[in-house]
């Protein structure tokens, strides 16, 4: 027998997916002008529902010129207390012209991360300004009460590093209405960090952990973990590192180049999160990223780990330890995570346990291969390969008010990297081809009914060709060519039938050549060019595409809407074209 309300709830959701339309995801830029040297990206903004939002300012035009925090107090919007159809964070940043490093930027409320990214580097003549948005609808219950927050952009300003960063941020609350239904959101958002206001934790080795011991409610039915792991310090360029055995031979950082976030519950493996190879705007060659930074450089997206198979086990009223580590960490990773908890509103107590976990015993140990050879003259050539491919199933059940809910997470996670080296008296060339991928199926089944499924595939392709050549006059050229990609494909199924599918594609290609004189001082650069394509479409009829190119540090071309109906971007207001996670349909009741 079907649980009460199951068909009505699920079919209503399916109908909404098919018939609701409207909304536009505008590009994140405001009318970019060809020839401009100001920052420009092809990324979309967050699409909005109909109606006027209530706005709560978090901070306005704060200056970031030291390593202190910028605290703020939060009060929920008075005129629209919820429920909300959507909650959006908007932030605007700028840095004054001059010299400045890229800086990490974060915004927090009650220990929960609201924004994580880095800043654009300025030049002596360009003061870049940029706008970022993040869909925080799933965090709606965090915003129902008052709280304390802070913005953190640690920045050194002195006679050498002169760039002062400024920033403002606000939350926009879109009330639910007949045209925009209230979002299905977690009942609680719990940070893993110990700071009550918010901050990252540094994970320097594979054994360092971000850990919190929690006693969760007695009626947990689903839960997820949103994970950020940002490479820093000696790990900033982890994707170029090699195993310690070969580090001296190829003059590179050691520790290998495999990184992956590992999640555990009470010491047992519970899930994994891939690490994206972000390149910051001072990375490798700063001119590569003027005026367009790399994929997600200014606005990281969290990776959501489905921990629902553990719901019944975690509802026993006992304290449980949830931990995050970074496999391969060999420098520093800034980490934070937030637990999203869905409760059974009609049950005082949920019981259950994990019945299968094949991730246990599968250590994140890649297979390393090498064809490196150094001849009698000291010339080194050859390749280093790094591979890891794991498949695992985690399954558990929760005895709820509407029956026994079985949650199953099936994943295939892979990492494939090849680095070739050509090293002699005049040349140092390193070529990296890397691909990280995740294929996952999260299924929720009530009793013997067909499951509700979410199928996802992520791919993070990354290539880097760094070619340094010493000339006969002692000068040096360093040519860099980079390709970054972010692909996310997903499908939601109900009763075995697809009800929604989507595709996110973000690609960045950039090249530049630095020229150093015989003393080692930078004398010039040449050949700067880049191209970004961002595309999104879904089975609701949403279509977004923006293409841009840059040359010599200025916008060379910009086109939006190519390939969409009427050459116009049109995205449903409840879509997530930015690739941010959404678990609203995966309930199973």
Any key phrases for this structure?
589 residues; mainly beta; 3 helices; 4% helix; globular; disordered N terminus
Report on this model:
There is one protein chain. With 589 residues, this protein is mainly β. The chain has one domain (6-567). It is 4% helix and 50% strand. It contains three helices and 29 strands. The strands form five sheets. Strands 18, 19, 20, 21, 22, 23, 24, 25, 26, 27, 28 and 29 form a twelve-stranded antiparallel sheet that branches. Strands 9, 10, 12, 15 and 17 form a five-stranded antiparallel sheet that branches.
Total helices: the number is 3
What would the principal axes of the Cα set say about the shape? globular
N- and C-termini, Cα separation: 13 Å
Main sheet specs: 12 strands, antiparallel
Percent helix range: under 10%
Q: How many E strands?
A: 29
Radius of gyration: 24 Å
Task: Give the quaternary arrangement of the chains.
Answer: single chain
What proportion of the residues form beta strands (DSSP E)? over 45%
Unreliable spans: 1-22
Kindly name the structural category.
mainly beta
Number of separate structural domains = 1
Q: Quick summary of this structure?
A:
This protein is mainly beta and about 600 residues long.
């Amino acid at each position: 027998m079907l649980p009460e309300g199951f068909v009505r709830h699920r079919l209503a959701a399916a109908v909404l997916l098919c018939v609701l339309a409207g909304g536009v995801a505008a590009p994140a830029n405001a009318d970019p002008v060809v020839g401009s040297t100001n920052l420009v990206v092809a990324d979309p903004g967050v699409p909005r529902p109909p109606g006027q939002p209530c706005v709560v300012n978090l901070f306005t035009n704060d200056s970031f010129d030291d390593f202190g925090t910028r605290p703020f107090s939060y009060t929920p919007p008075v005129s629209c207390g919820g429920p909300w159809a959507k909650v959006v964070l908007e932030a605007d940043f700028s840095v004054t012209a001059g010299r400045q490093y890229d800086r990490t930027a974060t915004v927090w409320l009650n220990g929960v991360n609201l924004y994580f990214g880095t800043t654009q580097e300025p030049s002596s003549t360009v003061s870049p300004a940029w706008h970022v948005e993040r869909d925080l609808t799933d965090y709606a219950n965090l915003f129902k009460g008052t709280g304390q927050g802070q913005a953190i952009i640690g920045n050194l300003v002195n006679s050498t590093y002169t760039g002062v960063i400024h920033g403002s941020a606000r939350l926009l609350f879109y009330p639910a209405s007949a045209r925009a239904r209230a979002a299905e959101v977690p009942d609680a958002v719990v940070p893993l960090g110990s700071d009550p206001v918010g901050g990252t934790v540094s994970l320097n080795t594979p054994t360092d952990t971000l850990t919190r011991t929690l006693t969760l409610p007695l009626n947990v039915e689903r839960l997820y973990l949103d994970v950020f792991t940002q490479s820093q310090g000696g790990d900033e360029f982890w994707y170029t590192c090699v195993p310690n055995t070969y580090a001296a031979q190829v003059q590179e950082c050691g520790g290998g180049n495999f990184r992956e976030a590992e999640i555990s519950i009470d010491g047992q493996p519970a899930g994994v999160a891939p690490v994206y190879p972000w390149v910051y705007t001072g990375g490798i060659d700063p001119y590569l990223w003027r005026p367009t930074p790399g994929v997600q450089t200014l606005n990281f997206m969290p990776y959501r780990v489905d921990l629902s198979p553990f719901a019944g086990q975690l509802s026993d009223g006992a304290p449980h330890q949830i931990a995050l580590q970074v496999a391969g960490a060999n420098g520093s990773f800034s980490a934070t995570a937030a637990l999203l908890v869905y409760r059974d509103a009609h049950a005082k107590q949920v019981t259950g346990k994990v019945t299968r976990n094949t991730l246990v015993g599968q250590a994140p140990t890649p297979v390393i291969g090498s064809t490196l050879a150094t001849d009698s003259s000291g010339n080194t050539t050859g390749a280093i390969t790094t591979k890891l491919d794991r498949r695992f199933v985690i399954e558990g059940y929760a005895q709820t008010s509407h029956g026994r809910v079985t949650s199953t997470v099936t994943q295939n996670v892979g990492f494939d990297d090849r680095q070739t080296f050509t090293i002699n008296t005049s040349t140092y060339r390193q070529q990296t081809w890397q691909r990280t991928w995740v294929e996952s199926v999260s299924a929720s089944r009530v009793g013997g009914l067909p499951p509700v499924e979410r199928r996802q595939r992520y791919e993070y392709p990354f290539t880097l060709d760094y070619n340094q050549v010493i000339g006969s006059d002692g000068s040096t050229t360093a040519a860099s060519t980079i390709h970054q990609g972010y692909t996310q494909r997903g499908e939601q199924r109900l009763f075995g039938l697809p009800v929604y599918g989507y595709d996110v594609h973000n690609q960045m290609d950039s090249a530049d050549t630095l020229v150093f004189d015989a003393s080692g001082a930078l004398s010039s650069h040449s050949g700067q060019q880049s191209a970004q394509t961002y595309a999104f479409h879904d089975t609701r009829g949403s279509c977004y595409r923006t293409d841009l190119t840059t040359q010599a540090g200025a916008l060379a071309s910009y086109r939006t809407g190519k390939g969409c109906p009427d050459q116009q971007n049109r995205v449903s207001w409840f879509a997530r074209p930015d690739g941010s996670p959404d678990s609203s349909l995966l309930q199973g009741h």
